[in-house]
Amino acid sequence: MPASIPRVSPFTQAVVQAIRKLYPEKLADSSFDNTGLLLEAPYRQQHLKNSVLLTVDLTKAVADEAISRGDSVIVAYHPIIFRPLKSLTQANSQQHSLLRLAQEGISVYSPHTAVDAAGLNEWLADIVTCSNEASKTTVHERSVITPIKDAPEGFEGAGYGKIVRFRHPQKLGEIIDRITSGLVLPGLNVAVPQSVTAGKYQIKISSIGICAGSGSMLNGLDVDLLFTGELSHHEALAAIERGKCVITTFHSNTERLYLISSMQNKLFPEIRRQIDASNKAGTWEKDLTLDFQIDTSRVDRDPFEMVTSPWKNW
Predict the structure, then answer these.
(1) Which residues, given as ranges, of the chain have pLDDT below 70?
(2) Following CA atoms 300, 163, 18, 82 in sequence, which dihedral angle do they give, to the nearest 10 degrees?
(3) Which residue from 45, 63, 80, 213 has the least number of CB within 10 angstroms?
(4) Which Pfam families does the UniProt record give (predicted)?
(5) pLDDT one-digit tens code per residue, 146-163
């Protein structure tokens, strides 16, 4: 008799369907990215809660957190499996985490660049334009840097990166304030042309190129300011040599708050719809609760921390 195929948790299926609805995999940049259900763990009935843990990076600390909480699914923005694996061993910390999660029955889904195209860069554009505060919104126009061809229905116009063009130039200092406030950061990395020797706060910005995470796609863009998570030393030098300004936050700091302020709020009602549809269709497990929860990781953070004098807490 052939061995039976392990079942997948009905709740995990509902979560995956919800994410694919909000952030279709067709929006991801398949030229390099690895998105989707990266770890489909066997279902251990009544072993885990109907709960989702959102994180930017799936580190050992996050895996420990999910296991201790009894989560069913981890939604990790960055794919923990990025390049093809030739083996799964205990010696590699990421592979060790995957093995432990599989053993516990915890699945892992990564939406990555599908999120970039379906909302993350738009959210960053809202921050620099104060669009979340009606009384402070600045008049501007937006466009996508790299549109997606044949985007799914409902996502027409989606793409990678954003350009914001203000009707009236904005002070660089004001934009810095908006970003530090919107991303809840103590400071930013700012580069301005070396020809600017005084009055940096008087620099006016008419256009901004925006890219969450790594901002290499902004190189050569005809805008006044490049706003991204990170640029290399030489990319930043090249930008200011062309008269551009640069703001970086460290890679994942352009991404993390989006999980709390946007993704979590969008995901909850969509998972609710998927569960209700499954229950109505009779495919929901009889004794499995219809209740669930979504939380963001308490231990997920950028590997870099900004430390300023007088070195408090160090």
Answers:
(1) 1-6, 134-135, 197-201, 309-314
(2) -50
(3) 45
(4) DUF34_NIF3
(5) 999 999 999 999 999 999
